[in-house]
Design brief:
Layout lengths: L2 H12 L14 H21 L10 E6 L5 H12 L3 E6 L11 H10 L4 E6 L4 H8 L4 E6 L5 H15 L6 E5 L6 H12 L3 E5 L15 E3 L2 H4 L5 E4 L15 H8 L3 H4 L7 E3 L12 H4 L6 H21 L5
Parallel strand pairs: 1-2, 1-3, 3-4, 5-6, 5-8, 6-7, 8-9
The protein binds N-carbamoyl-L-aspartate.
């Protein structure tokens, strides 16, 4: 284990001052940079060790998922395990929630079993903030309805930074269902703080002019903005969060907004194609683009583990006895 890395990790821990990781809106550019740098360092340390680290040995991380998840849930679990922590996996179905137990009582029960940190995903906005008020341990938001998904924002930003060195000055378009996307909101807050020019692009029913009040660009025509973009982040249409269908047909959406081989010809030569996943092939992205040379979608997944290691370690490290 290298001393240089150790010194860097203690410097990063000293620069981190938050008890929870609930959103990117309330973090500063410095906080976000600390998280990204910690992710890079923990990843380097894990790769160097070639086995799981012992930074959180004896600690327990509870995953409380009240909504479906493949990537985020497994990623938080792996992140905890790579730091040496144990995990408790909670799924709402099959639990006492089905017997009428409240959300807060469920979380308090898990905390009483010794969880040192709670990771929570819920369909209601604000649930992670609510838990942070009621629990004594750090809370990490793994997605609260359409509100925020801070670790998704961080992993997206880390992936861009690995390719472009810095975020400042880049033009990054978030395409698709901005209205219902927690990923969009976390990306917007994080990218803006780091100095990127953010475009939100999609049908008017999913991309309101209101976004301009945040100082970002609103576009409804992908072909118009495409040649200016350094990065495209293609967001899934969140049908499960919509009361009515916001466009006439999925086929029409794909014609106007799907990133396909024809559109790639009009993009910058070094454009990065991203998607938080799950992807709907043929709707927001076609297979040849999703699996093509510009796609960094699987790198995003790998980086997800690194940023979650960073969040867990920075928060739990503060609660360790000296
Ligand atoms: C995102 C989510 O759940 O918000 N997915 C994820 O965490 N990887 C985006 C989505 O579901 O479309």
């Amino acid at each position: 284990m290298s001393t240089e890395l150790d010194q860097e990790l203690s410097r990063l821990a000293g620069a981190w001052h938050h008890d929870h990781l609930l959103d990117l809106e309330s973090l500063s550019a410095e906080d976000i940079t600390v998280l990204l740098d910690t992710a890079e360092h923990l990843l380097a340390r894990f790769n160097q060790a070639g086995r799981k680290l012992d930074l959180l040995t004896g600690r327990t991380v509870a995953n409380l998922f009240f909504e479906n998840s493949t990537r985020t849930r497994n990623s938080f679990s792996l992140a905890a395990k790579r730091l040496g922590a144990d995990t408790v996996e909670f799924a709402a179905s099959g639990s006492s929630v089905a017997k009428g137990e409240t959300f807060i009582d469920t979380a308090k029960t898990i905390e009483a079993m010794g969880a040192g940190a709670v990771v929570v995903r819920h369909s209601t906005p604000g649930t992670s903030h609510l838990l942070a008020e009621h629990l004594n341990c750090p809370v990490l938001n793994a997605g609260d309805g359409p509100h925020e998904h801070p670790t998704q924002g961080l992993l997206d930003i880390l992936t861009i930074r690995q390719h472009r060195k810095q975020i400042s000055g880049l033009t990054i378009a978030l395409v698709g269902d901005i209205a219902h996307s927690r990923t969009a909101r976390s990306n917007i807050f994080g990218l803006q703080k780091l100095g990127a020019h953010v475009i939100v692009c999609g049908p008017a029913t999913l991309v309101s002019k209101q976004w301009e009040t945040l100082g970002i660009e609103v576009a409804h025509n992908l072909d118009d903005v495409l040649p200016r973009c350094d990065v495209l982040n293609l967001l899934r249409i969140q049908f499960e969060r919509q009361a009515t269908r916001p466009f006439p047909s999925v086929r029409e959406y794909a014609l106007l907004y799907a990133m396909d081989a024809r559109r790639m010809q009009r993009a910058k030569d070094d454009i990065l194609i991203m998607a938080p996943g799950p992807i709907n092939r043929g709707v927001e992205i076609t297979p040849e683009v999703a699996d093509g040379p510009h796609s960094v979608i699987l790198q995003q997944v790998s980086n997800g583990i690194a940023v979650r290691m960073a969040g867990l370690w920075l928060l739990l490290e503060r609660t360790l006895p000296n």
